[in-house]
Amino acid sequence: MTDEDIYQAPSSNLDFETNDKLEFAGFWIRVLASIIDTILIMLVTYPLLTVIYGLDYWASDSFLVGFWDLLISYVMPAIAIVLFWVYRSATPGKILLGLQIISLGDTKKLSVGQSIGRYLAYFPSMFCLFIGIIWVAFDKRKQGWHDKLANTAVVKRR
Fold it and tell me: Residue 73 and residue 59: Cα distance in Å, rounded?
């Protein structure tokens, strides 16, 4: 048995004080990046949903209209976001604003598993009145709960 504290947050092997000089991205620039991403997703999904379901789709009171709604509104955006994180280390909104998501582990590169975990960690971050998202504004590394759970951070590119 080791003396390691299993309740301690994951640490990083990156040297934040000397070599990296990382500038963590704050709350409002990350909100703006999310708004840009949401608009881009809507520009793709809304026309597809209208073509498939017609204008009556928008008058529906249902949370989920059918299979195509599930696929287009939830599954495809989730896959796109994870793929952007894996291959570009940022979503289009973050790219436009000069931000990058990094791993705080041995390397700055996000793994597929870490990206999926980060995406899934958004749910507990939002369920508690968005406190896990708002946490970014008060954390010293500007990490939300989803960042902490996935051992990631959002930084400004050089």
Answer: 16
Rounded to an integer, what distance in angstroms lies between the CA atom of residue 24 and that of residue 36?
19
17: which 2 tokens?
Answer: 């004080």
Query: Within 13 Å, how many C-alpha atoms sit on residue 6's CB side?
Result: 2
155 DSSP 8-state letter: E
Q: Alpha helix locations (H) across 13-144?
A: 27-53, 67-70, 76-88, 92-96, 112-127, 131-134
Cβ neighbours around 55 below 10 Å, total: 7
List, for residues 108-158, the tens digit of each pLDDT value. Answer: 999 999 999 999 999 999 998 999 999 999 999 999 999 999 999 999 997
Query: How far is 152 from 157, CA to CA, in rounded Å?
Result: 15
